[in-house]
Amino acid sequence: MTDTFKALVLNQQDGKTVATIETLGDADLPAGDVLLKVAYSSLNYKDGLAVTGKGKIVRSWPLVPGIDLAGEVLESNSADYAPGDRVVLTGWSVGEKYWGGYSQRQRVQSKWLVPLPDGLDAYQAMAIGTAGFTAMLCVMTLEEAGVHTDSGTVLVTGATGGVGSIAVAVLNRLGYRVAAVSGKAGAEDYLRGLGAAEIIGRDDMNQPARALEGQRWAGAIDTVGSTVLARVLAETSYGGCVAACGLAGGADLPTTVMPFILRNVSLRGVDSVMCPIDRRKAAWQRLVTDLPADALGEIGQVASLEQLPELAEQITEGRIRGRVIVDPNL
Ligand SMILES: NC(=O)c1ccc[n+]([C@@H]2O[C@H](COP(=O)([O-])OP(=O)(O)OC[C@H]3O[C@@H](n4cnc5c(N)ncnc54)[C@H](OP(=O)(O)O)[C@@H]3O)[C@@H](O)[C@H]2O)c1
């Protein structure tokens, strides 16, 4: 007889998303070549949209959400993984199309997994989670575009969010001067603690910009989109780069071509979901060396599966600071 375990399950009733805690067995889990014991998952903006039903994230019902997880292999039909191996999983449409991390056990495809690098445990991996992994991809993107520590200040928008918090901490650790944009009252101590040298109110950046504004930023990591991203582009210095990964403020981009054609500014998109496996491994390795361990203590709070519906509401309203680590075993 297999053990039973609990999971948060999303169903659709009368066009509405309903989230319930259910007791499942291994036979209820989807097909896959690896069975995992989930140690931790996390709450990302996309999870908030899925659990509340506010965004069209879920593509297959019923669904166990949770776009990332870290844990241990229990059973494996893959030559690459054996029972006891510690792994991390982000993206690949897990928690959207495929069952994800809000469960004590999950069956997944081994090709989605990354071995947990030495120096990170499962808790730390999910304190980082998809958000922190994406922040690292953004930092790597700026480096590849030639934005170096002596280039000038790097701006991070949505700075108290999951991506933003880890981006600030990593950039500071690497030696960049970091400016942080936040709409949260009282965020200054938190952001300075992570290493921000300058704090800018969201209202200041959320004003429509002229085609070109004064040159302020050597580079930027934008998690917000829309009017804020348009202003960031107009304020980016000659030859600078903006790594755009998010849409917390909107999916539109009311800009002109002027920053691109007169200032040689580049706008680079960053996607974590379909990121190739070698780049994933490189980013996780960089997170071991370039993210100060004490920053994670500052950034993280732990939640149970039962707390997720309420926290999901909060993250979609921009009310969460830092990262929520989900412990399905609480
Ligand atoms: N491309 C990818 O692969 C990828 C991966 C992960 C995340 N993302 C995207 O990146 C974004 C951030 O994700 P996250 O997990 O860090 O979310 P999060 O924790 O909710 O952080 C988003 C932050 O954006 C700011 N914000 C919220 N609403 C806003 C608004 N209306 N206008 C301007 N700023 C607003 C808030 O920060 P302040 O209060 O400090 O301003 C909020 O904390 C999301 O859009 C998410 O979908 C994309």
CATH top level assignment of the largest domain: Alpha Beta
Helical element count? 10
The quaternary state of the protein chains shown equals single chain
Q: Mean pLDDT, as a whole number? A: 97
Q: Any overview of this molecule?
A:
- The model has no long low-confidence stretch (mean pLDDT 97).
- The radius of gyration is 20 Å and the shape is globular.
- The chain has two domains: 4-116 and 292-326, Alpha-Beta Complex (Quinone Oxidoreductase, Chain A, domain 1); 132-269, NAD(P)-binding Rossmann-like Domain (Rossmann fold, 3-Layer(aba) Sandwich).
- It has ten helices and 15 strands.
- It is of the alpha/beta class and 330 residues long.
- α1 (45-52) packs across α10 and α2 packs across α8.
- β9, α4 and β10 form a beta-alpha-beta unit.
- It has helices at 45-52, 122-144, 162-174, 188-194, 202-205, 226-235, 258-263, 277-290, 293-299, 308-316, and strands spanning 4-13, 16-25, 34-43, 68-76, 86-90, 105-108, 114-115, 154-156, 178-182, 198-201, 217-222, 236-244, 266-269, 300-303, 323-326.
- Strands 3, 4, 5, 6, 7, 14 and 15 form a seven-stranded mixed sheet that branches. A six-stranded parallel sheet has the order 10-9-8-11-12-13, sandwiched between helices. Strands 1-2 form a two-stranded antiparallel sheet.
- It binds NADP nicotinamide-adenine-dinucleotide phosphate.
- The site of NADP nicotinamide-adenine-dinucleotide phosphate has 33 residues, from α1, α2 and α3.
Task: Set out the fold topology.
Layout (H helix, E strand, L loop, with lengths): L3 E10 L2 E10 L8 E10 L1 H8 L15 E9 L9 E5 L14 E4 L5 E2 L6 H23 L9 E3 L5 H13 L3 E5 L5 H7 L3 E4 H4 L11 E6 L3 H10 E9 L13 H6 L2 E4 L7 H14 L2 H7 E4 L4 H9 L6 E4 L4
Parallel strand pairs: 8-9, 8-11, 9-10, 11-12, 12-13, 14-15
Antiparallel strand pairs: 1-2, 3-4, 3-6, 3-15, 4-5, 5-7
Helix pairs in contact: 1-10, 2-3, 2-8
